[in-house]
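yo

u said u wanted the structure for the complex thing, so here. seqs first:
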Amino acid sequence: MLHIVNKSPFERNGLKSCLRLAKPGSAILLIEDAAVAAVAGSAPAKDIAARMGDFSFYVLGPDIDARGLGDKELVDGIKVVDYGGFVDLTVEQDTCQSWL
Amino acid sequence: MDDFDEFDGDGPEVVKRFMYVNRRAPYGTVYALECLETILIAAAFEQDVSVVFMDDGVYQLKKDQDTAAIGMKNFSPTYRALEGYEVEKLYVEKESLEERGLTAEDLVVPVKVLNSAELQEIMAAQDVVLSS
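structre next:
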């Protein structure tokens, strides 16, 4: 399953709940405001790093760039995808869930 | 959508597993009510529906809601009607309930209280998961 998170982890608990409910082996994609969680050294990045063995993490590059975070180091192991990569993920996974 | 073209009234051509994940409290936003309406639509199409209440979504099921003074309709009795639409798989996440000082006895309907590990399995087995 592909889990898509789009809310800032500093404002909402979507990422936290997703990490609790996603079955290990799932893919997790951070888009929109949730992309900020990918910045290395941030509090949510620590939660992501701790679960790197359980999930494949992705972040949408255009959302990182839009927020001026393109020059920041991202959490180790997260893969940056573009819109084409986003589409590929939805095709590769049998189902997807958006944590609105 | 072709699958539904041959619908003949004797039952659905295709039955998918639909899971609705409720994560918001009622009244502050319209999500809870809208989700409930969507559940009834899926039930009308005789789909395999399950409903999860987690995070603030557990407040949707709290007993004794009284909305008279806020001028909004109390829709919590509708959860008791779900059984009549054969929506009987109601799951509440144990962690969310405990975090809010609530127990299954506080809720308007009988539910299955499951921990996050148990819910992971059920969620992963769905065809469609809709979260609100």
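Strands of chain A lie at 2-5, 27-30, 56-60, 79-81, 96-99. Chain A has one domain: 2-99.
cya
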